[in-house]
Specification:
The complex is a heterotrimer of chains A (638), B (193) and C (106).
Chain A lengths: L1 H5 L3 H16 L7 H27 L2 E11 L2 E9 L1 H24 L6 H20 L3 H19 L6 H32 L4 H7 L8 H17 L8 H4 L5 H10 L4 H8 L1 H5 L2 H23 L4 H22 L2 H28 L17 H15 L5 H15 L8 H27 L6 H6 L5 H16 L13 H6 L13 H27 L4 H5 L4 H7 L4 H47 L6 H22 L4
Helix pairs in contact in A: 2-3, 2-5, 3-4, 3-5, 4-5, 4-11, 4-16, 4-21, 5-6, 6-7, 6-11, 7-9, 9-12, 9-14, 11-16, 12-15, 14-15, 14-19, 14-25, 15-16, 15-18, 15-19, 16-17, 16-18, 16-21, 17-19, 17-21, 18-19, 18-23, 19-23
Chain B lengths: L1 H19 L3 H21 L3 H26 L12 H22 L7 H8 L4 H10 L2 H24 L2 H11 L18
Chain C lengths: L3 H21 L3 H25 L5 H35 L14
The chains are: A mainly alpha (638), B mainly alpha (193), C mainly alpha (106).
Amino acid sequence: MTDLVRWAALAPFLALAGAVINGLFGRSLRGNAAGVVASLAVAAGFVLSALAFLGVREVGAVRVDLGDFLVAGDFTLGLGFHLDQLSVLMMLIITGVGLLIHVYSIGYMQGDDGFSRYFAKLNLFVAAMLVLVMADSYPLMFVGWEGVGVCSFLLISFWYEDLANANAGRKAFIVNRVGDVGFLLAMFLTFRAFGTLDVQAVNAAAPGFAYGAPVLTGIGLLFLVAAAGKSAQLPLHTWLPDAMAGPTPVSALIHAATMVTAGVYLIARTGGVFANAPDAAATVVWVAVLTALMAAIVAVGQTDIKKILAWSTISQVGFMVAAVGAGAYWAGIFHVLTHAFFKALLFLGAGSVIHALGGEQDVRKMGGLGRKMRTTGVTALIGTLAIAGVPFLSGYFSKDAILGALLSSGPLGGYGAEALFGLLMVTAGLTAFYMFRWYYLVFAGEPRSKAEFERAHESPAVMTVPLVILAVGSVVIGYLGLPAFLAPNWLQGWLAPVSAEVDLAHLSTSAEWLLLLGSVAVAAIGLGLGYWVYAVGGGALARRFAATPLANASRGAFGFDALYRVLFTGPGEAGAAGIAALDRDVVDRGVSGSAGLIPLLGRLLVRLQSGYVRAYAFAMLLGAAALVLLVALIGVFA
Amino acid sequence: MVAFIVLGALLLAAGVGVVTLRQPVHAALSLVGGILALAAMYVTLEAHFLAAIQVIVYAGAVMVLFLFVIMLLNVGSTPTRSLPWLKPVAWVTGLLAVAGVAAVVFMVQRPLPELEVVQAALRGGNADAIGESLFSDYLLAFHLVGVLLLVGILGAVALVQQAAPETRAVATRTATPDGEGAEPRPVLAGEES
Amino acid sequence: MVPTEYYVALSAVLFALGCIGVLTRRSAIMLFLSVELMLNAANLAIVAFARQWSAAGAQHALGGQTAVFIVLAIAAAEVAVGLGILVAIFRNRVSTDVDLLSEVRA
């Protein structure tokens, strides 16, 4: 059984092999072969993950050693995978949703010049993400962390001929880098405090420190910085909307289902530290909730079909981070799971629309497309309802779990848990609101552009089948985490062995019921409000409020980009220009100037070659005299 | 000592004359005087054979050759300057060099051997003494010098020969009696063929 | 007897004069004369040293004078060839000005 789990260690290498094959030989593969190769690699990974799942169910956590990486005196850094309930679950999400997106991409990227390049990079991403979730030590996790960052950059700027895309990729990478610095500093601090970088060891040793010890708080905050970078939380969220410049399947896989959840995973894995550092944990929750609220407000004002979903992702990831920050790790991971399904579904649906309309992404030019794209429309509706928190769909259960966690979290006690709860409820309502807007503007109502409407057609099966599968998942997957007071909560039990000891009070049954019904009410209000504002009278209310300050702030994303430009990029570019000028004027001039010395020297020396014999004779005489003098002084003949 | 002073003065005068006199003949004759004075000086140094050879070869042959060439080329006095800086610099350098050498020489003073020893060793620097040294210790050098002289002769003759082509052409032109010469005749202005 | 240093000093003066002549004179013939002067100055020094070495034996002493003999021969050969060259040059160019003979210009 243990061996069965150990086989899963192959999964990242299979994906890597797929990347290498497609990268080196992809150009010579005909037709869709590159996509098939990539999908097979991920499918194999999925099978291995499933087997590992069964194995871990039997035997618990399994370590797979890959060898020693660094041996320095007493310190040994070994590379290895640690496969337990959490990592196996993440692996299933990555490979499962990843497989569906790979298949979808075969249809979406058809005819593109960089077809094989795309799949190579996508496989590389899967490999890196797998390494991230399977790593047993922080350095190896960091390798995967950086790897997904690189692949994100590669894929965002996939169509690099357009400078805007390249800039978006660069922006993503640089903002991520800020988070990476946090990760590095956290690792340094961890090593200094704990003497080891093994994840399990750190978590085991954390309770040994004083409760709320500054070093633990410091580590926690630094990991928060890292998570904020990767998961696009305040203030490092600015890269995600720009990242929509990449192909839509990329947005679905990386920026919805997997990479952005890496931060959540990180905090969940470091649960032992956060459980003993309530300051850090509370900071995490506050940052997450504020992010969620802000992103939800911004999503309302966006007009790009993908940007709305991007801001929605930021908001939803805020939910997840809030949950793990509060100590309810299973709730956060639960939302990761459900969000992976419905957000990927929504993105792929958007991709289907974009593909059908030949690249149009402005929702103001869409409308009524549900009539012409049946499968896409229906699945998109399911996804919308799921994310809005409509009961009996997956999103409902996971959001409910998070909201409940906020109220019941012990560590969160003195930090304004009720306020946080309230803010998150409002955000949930906003989620329903803006998602309704998204669905309505694209698929329902009257077409706003005749040309676009005429052009629309349903996508081929290779794209719609994954949509259907994801839609089914969006409905069904929620039943893995039913509220504990009603039915057995499989997920919570599954993740219990890997969750840190956190004081989670049990809410009273009446409170639980109130929460359940409250969530329904909030979702209903959100959807209803959305209908009233956008559907009634062709969106008359929307137009009336379009010029309010809140609407402006929403459209302008609260001006973060402008702020960063003033604070960082402006001075940075000025500094770079200054240094470039320095290099050009001082260094280059100096070098070429010193090169000018040679002709000068030459001109001086050329005068020696006057052609006058007498001058030459004089020179010879001087030389001979000097020689004789030297000899006489030194006394060689003495 | 007196002889040295007198002869030394003569030599200096001759040297200065060679260097400064404008007319080449005057300079050459000045050098002849110097050579003769030098020959006398050799005598004071117990090198009688050398003194004789100096007069015969140098004064008698070399300087005569010089005077021949001077008169043949009709060398005039020196024309305009082109390296004006060289003259003062050369004089200064020369004087400095002399001062330096003199200083060094007078620093290292070795006692002279007795006159008897010198005369015994040099045997008056006579022909047989020199000849004995030349044909035994320095035989190779002697032969090489011979070869050198041969080469010099050949070189001189060859140098002279190079000037000959025009004269040879003139000779063949006037020497074809029957008109059987197949070579094309260079046409000179005013010549009837 | 006059000490060797005097002879050597005199030789140095003559040699320097010869150098000055080589550098100062423009006509090739005059240059040659100065070279001859230099050679003679060197000969004087060698003969003076030859006398000095007579304490070391006849071979060394006479060796000095033999050297001068050979130098004389060389000087004669050199003059012959040199003047021959000079005559050859003079045939092609009107002047014997050394400065004008230069074709290696900067």
